[in-house]
Structure formats: structure tokens, C-alpha cells
Give the backbone structure.
Amino acid sequence: MKAKRFFSIFLSLVMIFAFSACGKVDNTVVTDGSTSMEKVIGALGESFENENSDISFTYNPTGSGAGIKAVAEGTCDIGLSSRYLKDEEKAKGLSETVLAFDGIAIIVNPENPVSDLSLETLAKIFTGEIKNWSEIGGNDGEIVLIGREASSGTRDGFESIVGVEGVCKYRNELTSTGDVITTVAGNPNAVGYASLASVKESVKAISVEGIVPSEESVKDGSYSVQRPFVLVTRTDSPLSESAQKFFDYALSEDAYEIIYAMGVVPAN
């Protein structure tokens, strides 16, 4: 009897401990997704950790499609997407919250004399109708089209705005914003697109319809090639206390200056 009673008490203690562990606040925040959001999410994560030393923040730059999939499968707290969710993704129980808006810069090699293109001309370039830079006032050279992989939010944004969904004649389809910038920087005949916040001096961002891509032109809507930076969560599963704390922080006025400093415009 004593042995049975001891076992019963022991089992009860184990169950109490288990329930306590399940209810314990998770001290990590895991984000996964858009490589275009690396600068802004990295800056927000660093500032958040500085204010919350007991919480660890991580960011995995896997691309928008992978980030959406990760949050759907429960392998991250918050997914990061540089496009709006599709209806089928919302139907799987996902919600979107727009964090900021970012311009998609059309980038060429600094040696390229072309400095402005219309949306119509961009469409003809990326579908292969215009094949040589000399046709649009540039040097004689075959246009080399550099794009992103099919699941990229940057690609989705660019193609939908320009009206070239699924018909672009890319020479290379790369898996990150950084790879696109590096490739265009190394080829005088290349053209690609990248998050305005990530553009470096190694490439030249050209104007579109006469409007230079900038924080101001994105904010006032005059620069037409822009897209959202989205936080993706599950509708049927609340965030952990730590993840909710980061989510609220990222959308608060305290984060505005950080977001602006990264070259994008807060949504609120």
C-alpha cells in the first residue's frame, strides 16, 4: 500500500511539473522568411533583444514562400513575407499583418547609361520583346535578365505590378536579394530587381515612369513598383507570450524610427 501511495504521489508530482512546463513562457522568438526583410527584421530583433534580455530572437532568411510554409507547419512563430497572402494560404488558417511598405528597385550595372524606364518598357524587356540595350538608348549588348525564384515575394510583387506574371525570360533565377545585387553588379548588361532597402552602391537603381525610388516616393505612392512587408501568423493558434511581445513591439510607434532607418515606410 505504501508503495502504491508513493507511486501515486510521484505520478501526481510529475503531472504537475509537466503542466507547469507546458504553461511556462517560451523565451525565444523564431522568425522565418523573406530575404528582403532581413535589414528591417534584423534591426527590430536586435532592438527588441536589447530591451528584453531574457528573450532570444532569431531570423532565418529562407524566402517568403518558405516562411509562409514554416509558420503554417508550426516550425516558426512568425513568418515573413514580402507579398500579400494568397487566398489558398489564408484558407489554411494564416493571417497577414502589414508591417511596412518597400519599394522594389529596378537595378542595373553602374556602367549602364539607361536611367529611366516605363512600366511598358520593363514588361517588354522582361518578356524578351526588347533584347538589346541599344533599343532603349543603352550600349550595344544583349540584355541579361536576373530574377528571383518562383516563391519569392519580391518576384511576385514585381511581376504582378509590371504585368508579366509567369512569362519572364530570366537568364538566372536566384534565391536571395543579395545574390541578385551581386550578379547585376558583376555584369554590365544585367538588369534585375531588389528591395530598395537592400540596394547598395555596387548597382544603380533607375527611375520608373520618371519617379526615383526613395522612402518619400514609396510613402506618397508616386513610385509604382512597391509591395508590403508582412508578418504572417496562424489564426487558430495564439503566439507565445514572447512572440506576441515582439509582434506588438514591431507594430508600435517605438519601432517607427528603426523601420524608417532601414529605408522602408511603416504601415501604420
